[in-house]
Amino acid sequence: MCENFGAKHCQCQQLLEKHGWIEPKSLELHSWCRVILNCPDDLSSLLAAVQEEKRRDILNTCANVRHSAVHRRPQDFESVFRSLEAGIGLATMHRDATVLQHFQSLQSDFQAIIKETWSRKHALSDKLQTRLERISTEQARLKQTAMQDAKTEVDNCYREAGAKLADCVNAMPHKMASAAEAISDSDNFSEPDIDTILLEAEKTGIAPFAELPG
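RESULT FIELD:
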């Protein structure tokens, strides 16, 4: 675009020669933009009229495109849009309909890509939100189930302990009765009657303690 512009206007030949832009492809965009910025009077009559502040913004943005590319600066979609807008403005200033149409086509394509990207992002975000809600619901259900299972287990332990205690209490009367009976049998025990034993021994001719020393 810049070389074509210079070739169309004789006034530009001296400027191109001054900067050594004689060979094809020797003219670089950022250098050309700097020349327009620094020497507005030389080309102002040839360029389409643009409000001064907007003109400087267009030229500075276009001049920085190469700098950003060389230094691999990250570009967000706003930066890309700004560069495309600057390209459209520069093509308009140079009255280059072909380049202008090319930039406008690039801008439309980029807008379509951004729109599709945002649409996919929102769709994925909605899908993720739905999945998170399902996970949250499942977590709540599992927690409720675990609490109910724990309560059931505790209740079963209480019932089992209560049953054992009841068995012990119910067995107490029987055990106490058995103990009382044993004690009663012990109280009814009497020592042997010595007189009766001696009498029986005498009848049988056995003298108890006869051999014991006197």
